[in-house]
Amino acid sequence: MRRYETIFIVRPNIAEDEIDAVINRTSSIIEGDSGTIIKVDKWGLKKLAYLIKKESQGYYVYVDYAGMPASVSEVERIFRIDDKILKYLTVKLADSCDPEALKEELANAESAAETPAEDEVKEVESSDSDKENNAESTAEASAEDKVKEEESNDSAEEKND
Q1: Which CATH architecture has domain 2-114?
Q2: 127-155, pLDDT tens digit by residue?
Q3: Backbone torsions φ then ψ of 15, nearest 5 degrees
Q4: pTM, whole model, 2 decimals?
C-alpha cells in the first residue's frame, strides 16, 4: 500500500452538501479498494491565481490517504468526468506505508498540539524576563553613555577656552 495526498478544487457555487458528497464518493472509492483515509481537510473558498474554467475562486479540499494505485486512477477518472471539479493533483508521498501507524501518529500529534508543554510555557516566561532585564540594562548603558558624552564635551570646551 502506498501513501498519497490529493488536493482538488471544487467550483465555488457548489453547495456544502454537494462538496461533502464528492468527498464521500472519493472516500468510498479509496476504502472500497482496501485503502485507508488518513485525513480530510477542507481548506475552504480561496481566490485562484488564474482563471480555471472561467472561475476566479474555488473550494479547496485536501485528502491524505493510503491506497493502491488502481484507486488513485479511479479517483482521478471520476474527477475528470465530474464538472464540479475544477482541478486536482495527486502526489505519491511514500512507496509503502502502514496506515494504522500513521493514524496513531496523527492522533498523538494532534493531542500534543492541543496541550502545550510546560517547558514551552517556562521558556516564554523566561524570555519575557530576559527582555525586561535587557531593556533595563540598555537604559542604564545609554544613561552612562550620555554622562560620558557630556563629560567629554565639557572637557573639550575647557581646552578651547
Answers
A1: 2-Layer Sandwich (3.30)
A2: 555 555 555 555 565 666 666 666 665 55
A3: -70, 160
A4: 0.65
